[in-house]
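Action item from last meeting closed. Structure (112 res):
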């Protein structure tokens, strides 16, 4: 059991450091909301972690978008025959758009 607890504590420390960095950059901010989604840390190939919100419950109570995101199969079919691809970390490479007050209330995350 101690190994599991130590692993969880390390993840929590990494999670807090990541959010402190994003808070300093103005990407996230602290707020109060009746909504909260679990936060998971997904390992990166380089040993770091990506913070990922689990919005399944929110998706269950949200009205579907009239213009949904294309299915992965449709999107990947358009890539057939292409030879140049890239991978982008959007949090660090692009400015993040401001969210409306309504969205901020629903997109809150808490560590699990």
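Sequence:
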């Amino acid at each position: 059991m101690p190994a599991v607890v130590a692993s969880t504590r390390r993840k929590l420390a990494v999670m807090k450091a990541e959010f402190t960095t994003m808070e300093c950059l103005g990407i996230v901010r602290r707020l109060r909301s009746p909504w909260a989604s679990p936060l998971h840390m997904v390992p990166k190939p380089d040993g770091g972690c990506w913070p990922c919100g689990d919005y399944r419950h929110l998706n269950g109570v949200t009205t579907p978008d009239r213009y949904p995101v294309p299915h992965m199969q449709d999107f990947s079919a358009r890539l057939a025959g292409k030879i140049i691809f890239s991978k982008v970390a959007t949090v660090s490479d692009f400015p993040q758009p401001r969210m409306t007050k309504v969205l901020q209330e629903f997109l809150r995350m808490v560590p699990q």
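Note appended to the action item: The two ends are 18 Å apart (CA to CA).
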